[in-house]
Queue: 2 jobs
Job 1
Amino acid sequence: MESLRDKVAIVGMGCTKYGDHYDKTGEDLLVEACFEAFEDAGIDQHDIQAAWLGGGITGQNLSHALKLDFVPTTRVENWCATGSDTLRNAALAVAGGFYDVALVAGFVTKPDGHRHANGIYGGGPSGNWFFGEETSFAGPPAGTFATFATRYAHHYELTYDQLKEGLGAIAVKNYANGLLNPKAALHRKVDMKAYLEAPMISWPLGLHDCCVMPSGAAAAIITRADLAPKFRDDYILVRGIGMSVGTKQGRLDPDYDWVHFEENVIAGKTAYAMGGISDPLKEIDLACVHDAFTVVELAAYEDLGFAPRGEGGDYAKAGVFNRDGELSVNPNGGLKSFGHGVGSSGIHKAYEVYKQLQGKCGERQVKGTPTLGLTHDQGGYPGTYTTVITLLSTRD
Amino acid sequence: MAAIVSYGAYIPKMRMGPGTKNWPNKTQRAITNFDEDAVTMAVAAARECLRGFDKSKVDAVYLASTSLPYSEKQAASLVATAVDLRSDIFTADIAHSLRAGTQALRMALDGVRAGTFTNALVVVTDNRLGQPGSDLEREGGDAAVAFLIDGDAAALKVSSSHSIVNDILDVWRGDGDRMLRSSPEEHFRYEEGYLHAVTTCVSGMLSHTSQQIADFDKVVLYSPDARRRGEAVKRLGITPEQLVEPPAGLGSSGVAHAFLQLIHALETAGPSEKILLVNYGDGADALVLKTTEDLAAVRQDRRSVAAQAEKGVPIADYYDYLRWRDLGPATLNGHRVAAAPHAIYREQDEVIRFHGMRCTSCGMVQYPAQRVCVKCQVKDTNEPISMSQGGGTLFSYSMDYVAATPDVPLLHGVIDFEVGGRAMMMVTDRDLDAVKIGMPLELTFRKFSEADGISTYLWKAAPAR
C-alpha cells in the first residue's frame, strides 16, 4: 500500500463568507468560492481536468455553476465528513497520476423547502433511517451529542459546573477567534458568564455549545506535488490523510465507554503514521477540528493526542488551544462561529490551515511561523462516526 | 370449562385534577400521556396479564374499546403483534359500545368453553376524549385491563350472565367525530339510559337465577359519575359492605371502568367470594363471578390498581393537555410525519414486536438486528430475541429542549438492555428530577406519530414502576 504523503499540493483556495445568504443560491456561492480559488492559483475553469463536489445532490450542481464543459465531476456525500472526503477522493485521483489539475468544492445553502437542499440525504420517512430504530431519537443532533457529555462528566466524576467550565472555555475561545475573522458567520463576543447563562438546548448542552449552520462554499485547486511550483512558491502539501468509518459498534455494544470516539483515534493514527508525527501537541501548529458541539472538540483533543484523557477541559481552560497557545485549535472561529457548512466544512477548514501556513491571516494569524496544520471532519453521532483527518504542511 | 386465570391492569401515570393549573374542576381523572392511546394501554395491560404465563398458548385476542385509532383497520392485530403473540391466532376488535368489554369477555369464554381456543386474551381499553369543558371530559378516565381465559384452571369463574338491550342516544360518537357527544337532556340521558338499563338488567338476572342482591359478597358497578352511581346503588339496594368503590381520582374509564373495579376487588377478595359485575352501554350486562383458591397466586405477581392509582402525577397545565390532544393552539412542536405503510410492515418485527438479535456465532445481543454481526462479523447469524422481556438501565442521557415532541424536554437515553445489547431510545413518563445514570428502566409500547390517518407506534423506555 502506497503512502499519499507529499504527493499532492494545494495551489489555490477560495472561500465565501459564511452566513444566512438568503439572497444567494448554491450556484452563486460555488461561483464565488471557485473563482477566488482560480484566481489564487492563477488559472481559470478551463484548466480543470476533473472536479469533486461535496454537497448538493449531483456533480452537475458544480458543472452547471462553473460551466465545466464535459469535465468529469463527482458528487461526494459522507455526512459531516463530506468536505474532507471530497478532498481525499480528488487527492487520490491526482496522486495516482490520472489528472494534473483538479477542483475540489463544497457548499451548503439553507433548505429551500426541499430536504436535499442542504446536501444531507437521510432516506426520507419511509426509509430505515427515519423509521425503525432511528425514530428512537426524534430530536435534532444536540440530543445525541449531549448524551456523550453526560457520560463524560459521569465517567471522569466531573460536576455539572466542572463539565461546563471546560466546554465553556472551548466556546469562548471559538467565539473570540470568530470575532477576528471577516468570513465567519457570527461576530459575537461571548464570555464565560454569557456562556453559562445561555438557554438550554439539550441538557447539558446549551446554546453556546452548539455550532451555527449558515450557508457558504469553499474550494481548492489541487495538483501533483512535482507540478506545484509551476503555480506558486508557497503551495501547501498534503502530508497525510487518515480516514476511519465506524460500523455502529458503539451504538450496539454495551462495552463502548461513550467517552471517546474510536474512529477519531484510528483516523488520527493513520494520518500521523503517514505524516511522521509522534507528538501531535508539539509538532502540529494549528488544527481546525469538528466542533459541531463543544463536547466534540473536547473529544478531539483527547482522541487526537492533544490532551491526556479526561483533561481536555483543563487544557482548554489553561489556554493551550488559544490562538497564542501551544496548539491553536479553530483559529477561524470553528463551526461554533465560522459555521458548519455541511458538505463544505472540511474544505473551509483546509482553507484556514492553507492561509495560516501562508501567513496571510492578519489579526487572527497564529503565533510563530506555522509549518504543519491539521483538519478533522467527523460525521455521525456517538456510537458511529466517519472521521477524516488531513495533515497539511508547508514545502520543505 | 372456561374461566379467568390471570388479570392485569394499566393506569396511565398522568392525572388531571386540582394539581393542574387552569383545570376548572374539583375532581381528578387519569389521562394518557401524550404518547399513549387505547392501543398502547392495551399492550401494557396485556403484558401485565401475561407475566408468568406462557404467551405462546394464547390463540385468540379480543380487544374491546370505543376509542381505537382506526375506523377501518383492526387494532387487535397490532396489540397481538406488539405483545409478540403467535401469528396463527384469532383476533377481533369488539367496539362501539361501553359494554364492549363484557361482550368480549363472554365471547372469549364461549370460545374456550367450546374448545375452539386453549387460551384467549381479553383486553379492554379506553381513552375517553370529551369536548373541552364538557362533563364527559371532567368525569372520564383512561385505563386498560386484560384477562386471560383458560379451559383448565380458574382464578375467577363466571357462573352466569344476563343481558338486556336498550337502544338509546345518551352518549355517542358519530363516524368521523373525534370527541364524545351526549344528550343535553340530562334527566332523559341518565333516567332512560343508565339507571333504567342497570336496574332492569340486575332485577332480570336475580329473578332468572332465583337470587337476592344480598347473596353477593361484592358488587362491581359501572357508573358514569359519582352522582348516578349513588342513585343506582340506592335503587339496586346494594349495601356499603357489598359495594366495590372505584379507586379514587381516576375517573370513569369507559369500557374498562367496571373491570378496573373488579380487579381492585380481586386485590382483597378471599376464595369463594361471589361477585356481581354490572356493565352498561346500549343496554346492560350482569355477570356472576366467583373467586377460587388460585386467585392469591396471581395476585402476588401483579401491579395493584391501588398502587397504580396512588402513583399519579398531575399534568402541569390544562393547556398542556389540550396541546397533547391537538385541541389547543396550533404548534410545530409535534411529530406529524406518517411512515409509509410498507415501511411499517417491513419493520414490524423490529419496531412493533421489538425483536433484536442474538448472534448464533458469538452470542452477542444487538438491537436492531444486523445482517452482519457487529462483534464477530459473521453474516446472517440472526436469532430473534425479544428485547421487551426484560428491562434495562440508563447508561447516559440528555434532555432535549428543542426536540419535536409535545412534551419537552425529550429525554434521550442510552439504554443497556437486561437481555443484552444497547440502543438509544426515548424515555417517557419521566420525572426529570429523578433521572440518573444507572437507574432501572422498563420498556413500554407507545404512540409515536399520527398523520394521514396513520398512527405509528414504537417502544420507549420508562422509569421502572
Job 2
Amino acid sequence: MNMDLVVPIIITLIGASTPILIAALGELVVEKSGVLNLGVEGMMLIGAVVAFAVTYTTGNPWLGILLAAAASAAASMIFAFLTLSLSANQVATGLALTIFGTGFSALFGQAYTGKPISIFRSIFPEALATHPLWRLVFGHSPLVYFSLLLVVAVWWFLKKTRAGLILRAVGENDLSAHSIGYSVIGVRYAAVAFGGAMAGIGGSCFPLLLTPQWAERLTAGRGWIALALVVFAAWRPFRLFGGAYLFGLVMTIELYTKASGGTGGVPSEFWAALPYLATIAVLVLISLRRSGHSAAPACLGKPFLPTN
Amino acid sequence: MAIFTRRSVLKIGGASLALPLLGQAVLAQDGPLKIGFVNVGPKDDNGWTFGHWTGAKALEAEFGDKIEITFVETVPEGPDCERVLRELAQQGNKIIFATSFGFGDYVIKVAREFPDVIFEHATGYQRSDNVGTYNARFHEGRAVMGTLAGHLSKTNTIGYIGSFPIPEVVMGINAFTLAARKINPDIKVNVVMLSSWHDPAKEADAARALIDQGADILVQHTDGPAALQVAEERGIVGGFGQGADMSAFAPKSHLSAIIDVWAPHYIQVVNDVMAGTWVSDDSWPGIAAGEVVIGPYNEKIPADVVAAAEAVKNGIVDGTLNPFTGPIVDNAGTERVAAGAVVDDAGLWAMDWYVEGVNA
C-alpha cells in the first residue's frame, strides 16, 4: 500500500464513520437521560428515505436533512409516548420502532426506487481542495463537519451546561431529580426527540453522502453498530468519536486491502472478522481500566414510576 | 393481477401478527388457471423481483383471461413463506412460482401436501414429482461484458464486487475474466467480496477502494446500482448493469447490462401445464433462449468493440462458443480444463476455483 492512497483511504473512512457517529451521539444523549431506545436503525431508515424523497423532489439537500431530522424525531415520539407516558417496556418498544421504521421506509420509498440524485458535495470552492492535504480539510460534505461539531457540542452540553447536568441527574437518579422539582418525563421526551433527530440526520448521510439512491434497508444494520458504539464508548462523546472512526478504519482497510488485488497473505475471512475482533479487544481494554462501577447511567432502561 | 404486499398491513402493525393473507380458501373450479408468485422482495426493487414481475406481466399478455395471477411480494425466506405457499395452494392456484433460493425447503414441504399443484422454484436444486427448478445462465452475459472490458480497459485493472464466493458468483467472475483476457492477456481482475447481497453503502465504498487502486472498469454481482454511481462520479471508463438496465443511474458510465428475462420460461411452463405435458425438471437456459438479454451498448463504445461483443454473444447463441472452453488455468497455475474441452453443468455448479488473472 503506497502513500498516495492514504488521503483517499481517510476520505472513504470519514464517509463510512459519519452516519454512525451522528446517530450514536444522539443515542448517547438519550441513554444519558436514562432511556434505552433500540429503534435507531428504524429511525435512520426513516431519515434516509425522507432525505432522499425531499432532495429528489426539491433538489435541496439542506431541506432534505431538515425534514429527515423532523420525520425521525416524530417517529421517536411514538416511542416516547409509549415508554414515558405509558411506561411500556423500552426494549420491546424500541425493537418495534425499528420494525416500524423498516416497513415505513420501504413503503414510502416504493415511489423512489430506481431514481438517482446527486451527492451532497463540499460547500467550499473546489479550488480549495485541489491539493490532497487541503482535500482532507475542505473536501467534505457539510454532514461531515456537522458530525465533528456535534461531538464537541454534545460533550460541552453534558459536561458544561446546567441543562446537561439536569439531564444526567435524570438518568442517574430519576427519583431524586423528581423530588427536587425537575420534570423527569419532560427531560426524557426532549432527549428522545434529539436522539430521533440525530438518527434521522445519520440516516440522511446514506443517500446524500455515500450512495445517492434509495433502496430498501439502505442502512444495512448501521443503526445497531451505532447502538453498540455507545456502550463501547462508555457513554463518552470523544470516545464515541474514536470508536466510530476505528470502526470506519477497520472496514475501509478491509475493502482497500481486498481491492488491491492481494490480501497480504491474510485470508479475506480474517478481514471480515476484524471489526468484531477490534470490538472485543476494546471492550477488554475498557473493562481492565474501569474501577469497579459500571459506566452506564444508573436508570438506563428503567421506567419512571414516581407513585410506586 | 392481484398484488399482495403484506408490508402495508404487517410492517406497520408489527412483525408477528399472523394475519390471514389472502382471505378464505376457494375451491378449485373451472375457469382461469390460477397462478401464484411468491417473491422475496418488492416488485419495484429495480432488480431481481422486478424481473419476475415483468415475467408475470408477460404471462398476462400471452394468456389474457385464461389465467389469473396472484403476485405476493416481500415474503421472508423463513417459516412465513411456508404459510404463504400453503394459502396459495389452498386458494386453488395450480402453478406456484417461488422466486428465491431460500424458499426451497418450504416448497418441497408444501408440495408434498398438494400433489395436484405444480411448484417451480427459481435458482433451487431440490426437485420432486411436482417441483421443478429453473435458473438462467447469467455467466453467458458475463462473457459478453468481459469482452467489452478487455477492449476498453486502459489500466488493465478491473474491479469486481461480489457478494459471496458461491458457485453462481464464481462462475460469473471466471466467465468474465476468461473473456476479457482473451482480448487482453494483461487484464487482472481484483475481487472484493462483501458478504452481503444488499449493503449499498459498502458497495459504494468498495467501488471507491477499487478505483483508488487503479480499476477503470467495475463489475458488480450485488443487487444495486451503487458501484455504477461511483463509476459515474469518478469518471472512469464504466461499469455494467446487473439484472436490469441501470443506465438511469450512470448515463456516461453504463457500458451495457445483463438483463434477466423470465418470460420465455414462464410461458413454456404454463403451456406445458395447460397441455398436461409438464414434468419436473431443471431448466437452465441462457442467451439463446432469450432469458439472459444483453442491454443496449453505451454510445461511447467504438463500433468494432461492440461488434466483438456481439460476435461473442452470437457465438454463444449458435453454440460455436462456450465461455468455458479449455485450456483453462486457475490462478494458482494448475490446469483445470484441457485444451478443447469444456466445463459441463455439474462442473459449473461445483466451481470453487478462480481462473488465471483473478485476484481474490
